[in-house]
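Subject: complex prediction, re-run

Hi both,

The earlier run crashed halfway through, so I resubmitted it with identical inputs.
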Amino acid sequence: MSGYWPWWAGALGLGILPIAYWLVLRRSFGVSGLMGRLVSVREEFAVLRDNAAAPKSQEDLEALLDAATREQFGSLPPGDVPLPVAVPRGRALGARLGILEAAAFVIAMAGGGLVSRLYAGHAPGPWMGEAFRRAFGSGALALGALVLGGALVGAGTTLADGCSTGHGLTGSARLQPGSLVATACFMAAAMGVSLLIGWRVGL
Amino acid sequence: MHDTSSQPVCPHTSSCSLFPRLAMRASLGVWAALYCENKFESCARYQAAQERRAIPDLLLPNGKVLRVAGGGK
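This time it finished cleanly. Structure:
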């Protein structure tokens, strides 16, 4: 589609995002993980309430930890109990994004898609492309295919613990063996199904 | 602190928000000795992480959440 931004702009954006995410947040970037957070909204808000009720000062935190330790173990150990591994120095892995930040990201992602679509001269609205329309039409079959596809993506990314961003961009860039295998598998499956559908509709 | 044990250590220590706080006082290491080594599967934080559940910052390994009096629920 000639009205879209050049391919390399998208590639740059997709490449920069996981790197910037790691540099800023010290966490691996994955869209499916962020979207998955929205499924358990009640639990996420319960955690927000718990964190809001956490002690604000170091002294209060230490006092609460001491009290909890006495409650759990009867008394505070008389001497030093070494930690099994060193506390990470420098910038350790950051806390994962909160539910509100995850929601903001997902909304912004949809917004980016809309901006890109408008920039390309298309009217706002669902548009899956000519090949999809030829394969599934625009009625109940199309809707069913999208629902089934979405469910498969959700189940697959949960089983594989990542998606095309988590494994494909972030994990593969870090040469994680599991991510390389996962990316090879889902890319092969995607190409196979794409060719199958293309063959079915004569593309 | 150095690795003082050959026991398996919880794989989440580098990302656990509670673990660094156990280094605030020497006596708090007793939590890590019990829950971060060897039998870390019994840690409530580990279990929540394995189930991809959200984890409160101050969820203790025994399942209790530290809160100031009158804070939260």
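The interface with chain B takes residues 27, 36-37, 40, 43-44, 46-47, 49-56, 58, 60-62, 64-66, 68-69, 72-73, 76-77, 79-88, 92-93, 95, 99 of chain A (CB under 8 Å).

- K.
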